[in-house]
Amino acid sequence: MKKAVYWLMGDKAGRVIIGAWNWLWGLPVESGGKVAVAVAEESLRSMQESVQKLAAAVATQVAAYQRAKTKYEEKVREMQTLERQAKTAKRNGNDEAARLAMSKAIQVEKILPQLETQVQQAEHYVTAAKDKLNRERMKLEAYKTDMQNMKDMAEINAALEAIAKVNNDLNIDSARSQFEQAKNAVERHNLEQQALAEFSENPQEKLEAELENMTLDDEVNRRLEMLDDDDSDDKQLPN
After folding, report:
1. Cα 183–chain centre separation
2. Tens digits of per-residue pLDDT, 115-135?
3. Quick one: which of 5, 90, 95 has its CA closest to 46?
4. In the chain, count of helices (H) and strands (E)?
5. Would the pLDDT of 36 be above 80?
6. 168 HSE (CA, 13 A, CB side)
7. Which residue from 32, 42, 58, 26 is spatially nearest to 126, judged by alpha carbons?
């Protein structure tokens, strides 16, 4: 599906459409999670494919340049050979052969400037293409490093999210607060019960009980004193 979209819309538009689809499915790149990493990986693969295509194009240009250069060098050697043939024929007194060889040499010489210009242009194009390829390769390597850093950061973010989730699930502070509330409630209830017990006691009954205790104590003391008096009387009896 992605390749079809890229083929129909181009790389840039295709990435925009794929990103829009991700957003429509509730997976926006801006979330910075796994979706963002996946989109970055897809973009990196597209850049790698583009660099590979550029490398193939540069290789084609280099091959064309080499062919043009070879053809130019062959024509230069051909002209030199014809000039030597003309010189040899003239030395041997064969004017007709000398003129024919020189005529061919002149014809070849006429196209040499054009061939040289083409070779120079091809060399210029190849040099520029190689420079661009090197720049794109360097950028690609930088993006690869960024991609790895992005993955590492995403893993760290996931770990932090997991830690936060564990902390939220444990919610120790909340449990501690609930414990303190329960403790305070029990202590407060105890104080209320004590106060209620005090208020529920009848002061009149308490006073009567205290009086009864005092009367009982007095009676006990009186009886004990009587016992002491009896002992004294026993001691005064005659033998």
Report:
1. 46
2. 999 999 999 999 999 999 999
3. 5
4. 6, 0
5. no
6. 6
7. 58
